[in-house]
Amino acid sequence: MKRFLRRTHLYFYHFIVGIFLVLLYPFLYFFSRKPERYKQLNKWRRFYSAISSVTAGFFFRYHVEEPIDWSRQYIICANHTSNLDIPSVSYLVKGNFAFMGKDDLLDNPVTGLFFKTIDIPLNRDSKMSAFRAFKRAGEYLMSGLSLVIFPEGGIAEAYPPKLADFKNGPFRLAIEHQVPIIPVSIPDSYEKMWDDGAQYGSRPGISDIYVHAPVYTEMLRLEDTDELRSRIYHIINSKLA
């Protein structure tokens, strides 16, 4: 019975996401057509994330270590165990932002619109794709956009998930462009929906999101990349135990 209920809820969630995508698509499409409209696109993305999640019974409870000045840009680094991480972080970030993620999100009916416009697709198996992605990411940071990057590079296959090793990319970007990093710990979203829910289904509930104080990079050099990566890893992991 439990498995049946979780599977039913997953189908209900997909239905809700699809319905709101259809209803909001004209607005999302319009604001995705030109880069000067991306700020409005993100406002609609935040609304879409909130209304679809809440309607399906997913609630996000944010614990913010210190007030965030969203008038400046950041690199937001969060652990990644669930598709719910995307709407939870989308709603968190109040400024203009873009995700960097795997290029297979281009074919996803929900994320495709964003990854073909504002977001940055990345194929880690292609050096050219990685070069283009990080070049574009640097241009975004110089123009004032924030970046959301899941530094594990994907969702681990083992359940229950444990924090995987981080890739170097976000930390090199942060040092090169002197942009602070906001570490975000999401300890329990996988209990509501692990990965895309295909294996265990989903259930409604409250996910706690821990937003740590920004880590500033003004005094760091590229030689400090490994140290910065390790520091962010331990900050995020501190709330996952």
Q: What does it look like?
A:
It is built from 8 helices and 7 strands. With 241 residues, the chain is α/β, with parallel strands linked by helices. It has a single domain, classed as Glycerol-3-phosphate (1)-acyltransferase, CATH 3.40.1130. Strands 1-7-6-2-5-3-4 form a 7-stranded mixed beta sheet, with helices on both faces. α4 links the parallel β3 and β4. α1 runs antiparallel to α2 and α2 packs across α3. The longest helix has 31 residues. The chain starts with a helix and ends with a helix.
How do you describe this structure in short?
This protein is an alpha/beta fold and 241 residues long. It has helices at residues 2-32, 38-55, 85-92, 112-115, 127-143, 169-176, 189-192, 225-237, and strands spanning 58-64, 75-78, 97-102, 120-122, 146-149, 181-185, 205-211.
